[in-house]
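Input record (one chain):
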Amino acid sequence: MEEEIDRISQLPDEVLRRILSLVPSKEVARAKLVSKAWQNLFEYLPSFEFFFLRRTFEFIPPRSPPPGDITDDMSSFINAVDSALKLHKHLTLDKLKLCVDLDLIGSGTTSLMIDSWIDTALERKVGHLDLWFLRRDGDLDHLYLLPVKVFSARTITDLCLDECRLEISGDTNIDLPGLRKLCLRRIQCQGYEQPVQKLISSCPLIQELETSFCSRMQWLHVSGLPNLQRLRVVNCYELESIQIDAPSLQSFQYHLYHGVLPCDIVFSSSSSEFLKELILYDDQYITEDFFQSLLVRLPNLEILDMFCGLQRIEISHNRLKRLDLRPTRADVILKIETPNLQSLNYLGYRMPLISAIASLNTSSLREVAIDFVNLNICSYFPILQSKEFFEKIRPCQDMKLHMHVKSKQQLTIPGTLREILSPPVYYIKHLYLTVDNCSEYQYIIDSMLWMCHPQTLSISPGTAPMFLKVLYNNFRNKEKHLKCCTRTPKCWRHYLETVQIDDDERKAEIDRIMAMPKLCDKFMECEVECEVMFILKWVS
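The corresponding structure, as predicted from the sequence alone:
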């Protein structure tokens, strides 16, 4: 019998190390037991990520680890981390990420054990240190106390601390000359503002700064950071003041969901001059005066993303290229004057198209995404307005339109309206649809293809499989229904010449959906897994 050849072990060490770096760290720790060669490779891996959590824990992106990385076996977790760090022989360690549920480990020597892991990483001159120590009981006083020596680790370039307790006083030596990214989430420290300010101001080369879910912090002053490019403040509910003096700042994100206090945000003139991206998510405290005064101080703004409760949103800006709007009010009035706008993304109760069309310059617009909140307050889709909007975007020669449909009422076109509306729009070249589970998919298909005749129709991942099934049957059997219309204007079937599916992967996805029994549980629960594109040729 011919002996099997171990071709994997014959690969160059650099290739094998790259392969191992993509495998969950706890699995790599087991793999080293296979052979001495694997152990030698393990000892020179550049980074480690370990997660000790309950498997039922729900993560909030971007903190979610790959499923294979999670373990709730304490002994295997401790052994994996110990062996990884103690056996590591490379002069430097690129990254160490620890995500630990302290309630699972218990008390006793837990802090000493974690301290030893961090000490080893610092001795290996770690570059990226990411620490998250979970406490379910919510007791901030019982959070893990971070060793002060972390603040004098000169090799750290990326430091992310989540649910840690910090002890920073006036005498604390902070020496992080290489730090470029600092992330503080759910941290706790005595006298909150002063320690945080001391930490931030002691790292003048920071390029990215984030503070998220940090309680007991009433003010945040960002200054003395000439290289800061991105600032993110998320759900710090007790914040009353943010003052920003950062001449290189290009992106500012402020999120406050269901806040209890308004926050005064002040930019220095040098900070606002080069800002290109502004993201404001505040459903209660953003006012029209604040927004307008802020907008006029941002001459180079290119991206604006807003989630707010304003009744009137007026946006006038010559440099804006992308606009994402998520108003919380159904009666919002929108006015847009943005001659260089390329992308518009709208999520709301209904599109205030009548107020927007008069001022919206679409000469540069290339992509539109519309997602309607499906509530009883909006019983039907504004057909006349949407049709007028489609016609307004005629100058766009390569228009992409994304629509998220949640119910048939949003797109049903009454027969009486067909006689008074103009012909379908041919200028939308690419139509992307995401359709949720609802009762009548046929209404959605007929209405959408009556309003516009795109060159490609793409069904996005996450769409209900039944919609794709109904759509495909419509295309496949369109010749059988050409006597459906007795008067003009006729439905889309009379104008559609041919339909093609662009590649084998998408054909396979259609075959998968079509093969599923209509009423089986799997069919009702599943979603379209990959984008399916139909190429449509219409009668000229």
